[in-house]
Amino acid sequence: MWLTLALLIIPAFTGVAGQLLLKVGMSQMGSLEISMAAVPSIVLRMATSPWVVGGLFVYVSGIFFWLLALNRVDLSYAYPFASLSYVLIFFSSWLMLGERISLSRVMGMIVICLGVVLVARS
Predict the structure, then answer these.
(1) Suppose 7 and one of 11, 28, 67, 69 were both cysteines; which one would form an S-S bond, judging by CB atoms 3.0 to 4.6 Å apart?
(2) Considering its fold, how many domains does the chain have in total?
């Protein structure tokens, strides 16, 4: 039981860590002009950014644990745990990136948490 929960929660944390790294890396690039001519340059900048590469590695590494979790439980049970990443991103963005949060967003996060608790208890 505890191992299965860990296998469901680890991908949420690796996903959040990966997203935070990706955000930092992309923010450091400044405003990017998006056009067909600019795509090769943008891809090169992304591929050579340690933040972006590291973020992708961390994000993708969570898939290993997710696949192990899917081997043990129904997808309909496992998938609501993925919504934990919404909540973790919400608070991590506020704490680590200084993003602003509104009361309506807080209420939405509470609803998500309650939903995950209900599914986990089923």
Answers:
(1) 69
(2) 1
